Amino acid sequence: MVELVTVETLKRELGAVQAKLSLATVEPFVKSGLRWFRREVGADLLEHLEDLANLPVGAGAEAELLELAQACVSWYAYDLAFPHLKLRVGDLGMTKANPNNTTPVTKWEYLDSREANLAMVDRSLEDFFGELERIRPASWTGSEAYKERNRVFIRSAWELARYVPSMGKNTRFFSGLVTYVERAETLYLLPLLGDSVFADLKAKYRDPSGLPLTLTVAEKALLNELLPALAHAAIFEALPYLPLNVSPSGISEQRSKDGTIEQVAPGAGTRDSLRRQFLADASTYLARAKNYLDKTASPSLFPGYYAANQSDPQAEPDFTNSDLIIL
Q1: Which residues pair with 246 in a beta bridge?
Q2: What local confidence, expressed as pLDDT, does residue 53 receive?
Q3: For residue 271, what is the enclosing H or E element?
Q4: What is the DSSP letter of 150?
Q5: What is the pLDDT of residue 80?
Q6: Following DSSP, what letter does each residue of 292-314 receive, concatenated?
Q7: Helix (H, G, I), strand (E, B) or coil at 119
Q8: Within a 10 A sphere around the Cβ of 314, how many other Cβ atoms?
Q9: What's the short name of a Pfam family annotated to this entry (predicted)?
Q10: Looking at the DSSP assignment, which residues form a beta bridge with residue 257?
Q11: Which tens digits make up the pLDDT trace of 267-303?
Q12: Which residue stretches of the chain have pLDDT < 50?
């Protein structure tokens, strides 16, 4: 049985890897990459992709999906291996390989290469999920991983980039933001929509038949107002925690210095100003969503919102003996 990613696959996807790279060198990292990919896409879909890799006639309509999956694992495994490839460890100790007529890379070149590796992981994973949503195989739409990915209204870095371009297109960043997306749904969307409307929209987001088939025109228009609000509210909630790195040795603040660009963390004033702006933007979009609901809600359209926002019926007030009435 052919594995999803082999040494030949790795060389084909990476391009720049030398032909003499051996299986023994990269096999542990490929296995780690496969375990990571299983967590991302689920065991059912990974098994389906492995079956595609073993078809004698090729993957057919799913060939691009298979290639993107191999690219994801290859780049992730390569980045795991990258820090170890520069060293040789043996009985005599640790040495650094420096063949004749070659020049060791500088620190900034090494760090730049690591960042480029991770950027390819991000791009490959986003391309993979894009193709996955296009063809929607049953091994994906019927899996627990599908339900997990669709538990929030904003599901990927590229979807986030539609509403906040400066924060999107980075899978690593978005994976840490999902918790705050869920928090923003609870704190901002749920009170506005009410339990029934919120639950109905969320159920349709999880429907394997696909959003274009399940959402009405009115629901799509409502989501067009809600999703920008959710994106800005999630980042507003996440901003205080983004620059912090918590480890057994304590709490530190992250910054990047690679020899070519030094990125200094913003001060408290800049952060507070940024948070206020994100909150203001979220409030603006939430107000637009509320205005849309107020105009369109009826007993048959968003009935939960309509019922919750109607005045309580009361009998006509009697002002007969009131001093405010001029007879």
Answers
A1: 251
A2: 85
A3: helix 268-296
A4: T
A5: 92
A6: HHHHH--SSSSHHHHHHTSPPP-
A7: helix
A8: 6
A9: DUF6712
A10: 262
A11: 677 778 888 999 999 999 999 999 999 999 999 999 9
A12: 1, 327
How far is it, in rounded angstroms, from Cα 302 to Cα 194? 10
Separation of alpha carbons 303 and 296, rounded Å? 10
The vertex-227 CA angle with 224 and 233, nearest 5°, equals 145
Q: Rounded to whole angstroms, how far apart are CA atoms 243 and 182?
A: 20
> For the CA atoms of the chain, what is the radius of gyration?
26
pLDDT at 192: 95
Residues in Cβ contact with 141 at an 8 Å cutoff, skipping those fewer than 6 apart = 208
| CA–CA distance, 237 with 223 (Å, rounded to integer) | 20
What backbone phi and psi angles, to 5 degrees, belong to 88? -125, 125
Give the Cα separation of 320 and 21 in Å (integer). 96
Q: 3-state DSSP: the chain helix, strand, coil percent, rounded to 5? A: 65, 5, 30
Give pLDDT tens digits for 185-197: 999 999 999 999 9
Burial class (CB in 10 A: 0-12, 13-18, 19+), 203: exposed
**Cβ distance 72 to 124 under 8 Å?**
yes
Q: Which two tokens stand for residue 190?
A: 């749920």
How long is the chain?
A: 327
**Cα atoms in the 13 Å half-sphere on the side-chain side of 297:** 21
User: Under a CB-based contact definition with an 8 Å cutoff, are residues 326 and 219 in contact?
Assistant: no
Q: Pick from 205, 95, 187: which is nearest to 150 by CA? A: 205
Among residues 240, 45, 233, which one has the least CA distance to residue 153?
Answer: 233
Cα distance between the two ends of the chain: 96
Map tokens 């078809």 to a residue. Answer: 55
CA atoms in the 13 A half-sphere facing the CB of 305 = 25
Three-state DSSP at 93 gives strand
- CA dist 313 and 315 (Å) reads 7
Residue given tokens 């799509």 in the structure block: 220
